[in-house]
Amino acid sequence: MRVGRRSQLLTAVMMALALLALPLAGCDGEPAPDGQTPTQAPTATATPGPPTPALTATPTPSPSYPVPADIAMVAIPEGSFSMGSEEGFGCERPVHTVSLSAFYLAEKETTYAQWMGVKGWAEQNGYTFNRAGHMGARYGGDPDENHPATEMEWYDAVLWCNALSEIEGLTPVYYTSSAKNEVYRAGRIDITNDCVNWGADGYRLPTEAEWEYACRAGTTTEYYFGNTISGEDANFLGSGDPFDDGTTPVGSYEPNAWGLYDMHGNAREWCWDWMKWHYYDESPVSNPHGPLEGGHPRAYRGGSCGSDYVFLRSANRESDFAYHVHHDRGFRIAQSCPVEG
Ligand SMILES: [Ca+2]
Ligand SMILES: [Ca+2]
Question: Is residue 120 helix, strand or coil?
């Protein structure tokens, strides 16, 4: 009898361990954020400990996210605006005129559900991401899949744009070299402006100029709703929302005049440009794409749920190395308009 009961126990333990190992298999090869290695499942020959709830608990399967059917894009009109601020940090000066062609910008930050849907397809189709990404901010509240995706490198945001382009049968924007004969699908490549097909109909990150122009939506004040900010306007550090210092679901606050949500706060947003402190001294007037030479961190905009409100200003510029992740940094996508003629 004792042998029989022990055999039954071992069988149950092995079945439970096999079930436990399933989610790990689904994460095969994905480094966890911050370089953590997923915990290895114990082997079936390990000495079984006392019976645990795992023997009877129903394992939660890894959620499967479909490819997003439609990501709402807002048509941003061509026009000129005064970029920068004389009141802000030195990198925001001088205020200078910039003219932009019409383009599209995503109505909202990329959500975790969208991130996972595209990434899942991409990993079955030749893409390799550097990070897994994360559901909302790591600190504060209890985020769900409608929170912004966070914890992706700049490289990953660019790869994701290319993957979405390929899903939709559009021409990818980013290539591994200036020859533009190989679509950028893996790794960390410090692609330059001449590796970009700016006229392609695929998805891309906005430039800093596009981002600020779209955020302002015709306003010249510090924020698109005026010169002061409250917790009613946006999600920033200490703003009083239910998620405390974490992200809120995308689109939780009033949009700007052009219908764009969360341009101030929630997730910080990667832009295309290399961040050069004095770039505004040399920026071209028409469709600036940032410095031509590398060796700079990449720009991101808008501040976040973890930012003091001063970092949410329309003109505020921040930057980080392309291989870094931040617990409340994500992105939103842009798309060039077809060039007529
Ligand atoms: Ca907040
Ligand atoms: Ca944002």
Answer: helix
Contact by Cβ (8 Å): 241, 232: no
Q: How far is the CA of 270 from the centre of ligand 2 (A)?
A: 10
Closest ligand (CA of 268): 2
The position carrying tokens 């990434």 is 119
In the reported structure, the alpha carbon of residue 312 is separated from the centroid of ligand 1 by a whole-number distance in angstroms of 12
Neighbours of ion ligand 1 (CB under 5 A): 235, 239, 241, 305
- What is d(CA 128, CA 158) in angstroms, rounded to the nearest whole number? 12
pLDDT range class, residue 65, cuts 50, 70, 90: very high
pLDDT tens-digit map of 244-256: 899 999 999 999 9
- Residue 79 to residue 115: CA distance in whole angstroms: 31
| Tokens read off for 126 | 């030749």
Nearest to 307 by CA among 229, 251, 252, 253: 229
- Over pLDDT 90: what percentage of the chain? 76
